[in-house]
Specification:
Oligomer: single chain
Low-confidence stretches: none
Radius of gyration: 18 Å
Helix content: 25-40%
Shape: globular
Largest sheet: 6 strands, mixed
Number of helices: 9
Bound molecules: zinc ion
CATH architecture: 4-Layer Sandwich
CATH superfamily: Ribonuclease Z/Hydroxyacylglutathione hydrolase-like
Order of helices and strands: EEEHEHHEEEEEEEEHEHHEHHH
Number of domains: 1
Mean pLDDT: 97
Distance between the termini: 45 Å
Structural class: alpha/beta
CATH topology: Metallo-beta-lactamase, Chain A
């Protein structure tokens, strides 16, 4: 079977990622904050929705679930107990979710929220990671109901995957994140190039996502907390008691909150 991964735009900057099985015309969506754009795409392409996967409870990720289930009553809802939706399959760290003949491992990547999950889908040995609001291209999520320590652990775990892995974050925050990155590392050519590329894509309405692990290691300052240029950039703006990765990471998150 051939599986396609397609972004559906929602609200102003959300992406609802859709897995499409071209062999049987079935589809899975991840974090449908809105139902209408999903239904429109399914109808336009002759697809049937069979499952919904949720990463965390925020309304812009779950708001379309009930309406989608009304339209497609057989839809199988996969979520954590804490996600505030009527799930058919409760999942947590270590669970496995099926996408036809492919399997996705469920990782707990708390920090943005306490029970945030990522779905790590393996296709022919390559990881496709649906990471919600944990990792963005060039940045990471804010801390709401989790802790900065949890977020650091989660981002470190996501950063540990092989470089050809692909990340599918739920928001198009790339330009803003890269501008922040340049405020920390003004001489980082990879960030400069990525910002130029993201600006050109935005002008054409093309998503900057997904992104590879290799790319993120070059452009995402939250993955670069041991780089002398990042430590220097942060300490020029905020006094650091030490240069441990968690200290630098927390200072970066603080600076980005006010950027
Ligand atoms: Zn969120």
């Amino acid at each position: 079977m051939s599986l396609q991964i397609h972004p559906i735009k929602a609200f102003t900057d959300n992406y609802i990622w859709m897995l499409i099985n071209q062999s049987n015309h079935q589809a899975i969506v991840i974090d449908p904050g809105q139902a209408a754009p999903v239904i429109e795409y399914l109808n336009a392409n002759g697809l049937e929705l069979t499952a919904i996967w949720i990463t965390h409870h925020h309304h812009d990720h779950t708001g379309g679930v009930a309406e989608l289930q009304e339209h497609f009553p057989m839809t199988h809802i996969v979520a954590h107990n804490d996600h505030g939706v009527a799930q058919d399959q409760a999942v947590k760290e270590g669970s496995t979710v099926n996408a036809w003949c492919h399997a996705a491992q469920v990782w707990e990547v708390a920090g943005h929220t306490a029970n945030h999950l990522a779905y790590v889908l393996d296709i022919d040995g390559k990881k496709h990671i649906f990471c919600g609001d944990t990792l963005f291209s060039g940045g990471c999520g804010r801390v709401f109901t989790g802790t900065i320590e949890q977020l650091f652990t989660s981002i470190s775990r996501l950063a540990s995957v092989s470089e050809d892995s692909l990340f599918y974050p739920a928001h198009e925050y790339t330009q803003s994140n890269l501008r922040f990155g340049l405020s920390i590392e003004p001489d980082n050519i990879a960030i400069q190039d990525a910002l130029n590329d993201a600006t050109a894509k935005a002008a054409q309405g093309i998503p900057t996502l997904p992104v590879s692990g290799l790319h993120e290691h070059a452009v995402n300052v939250f993955l670069r907390t041991t780089e002398p240029s990042v430590i220097a950039g942060v300490s020029a703006k905020i006094p650091l008691p030490d240069d441990k990765p968690l200290t630098v990471f927390a200072a970066l998150r603080e600076l980005k909150n006010n950027f």
